[in-house]
Amino acid sequence: QVQLVESGGGLVQAGASLRLSCRTSGLTFTNWAVGWFRQAPGKEREFVAFITWTGDDTYYADSVKGRFTISEDSAENTVYLQMNSLKSEDTAVYYCASTRRRGGLVLRRSYDEWGQGTQVTVSS
After folding, report:
1. 16 CB burial (10 A radius; 0-12, 13-18, 19+)
2. Which is the most buried residue in 30, 89, 120, 124, by most CB within 10 A?
3. In what order do the strands lie in the sheet with 68-73?
4. Contact 98, 111 (CB under 8 A)
5. How much is the CA Rg of the chain, to the nearest whole Å?
6. How far apart are CA 120 and CA 124, in angstroms?
7. Distance of alpha carbon 33 from alpha carbon 73, whole angstroms
8. Which DSSP category does 31 fall into?
9. pLDDT one-digit tens code per residue, 23-46
10. What are the tens digits of pLDDT across the range 80-93?
11. Which of 60, 52, 57 is nearest to 28 (CA)?
């Protein structure tokens, strides 16, 4: 059974950094991808970034490209999202999700398992 647990959210000022963690269990290392999504109040859940489990492939939403970095530590079964130069518009609940699919990794419907989310609030 796959389980995902996010942590690392908090309240920060604009321009600050945070690192989110997504601790996984039940994934096999060679055929999974993990994505980060976020949902702001009153808005749809949107794609942020994904990484294939080997770490060979990463992809970012335009809104975070150059500021956020996704990485994985297979020894720790954890995927990270380093968020720098945070803006007020980054305020949202951040979710990690896993999938065994190879395509459509920017789409919510491509992911099978989801964590409970962690709140990120950026004050301006």
Report:
1. middle
2. 120
3. 3-7, 18-25, 78-83, 68-73
4. yes
5. 13
6. 13
7. 13
8. S
9. 998 876 566 899 999 999 999 999
10. 999 999 999 999 99
11. 52
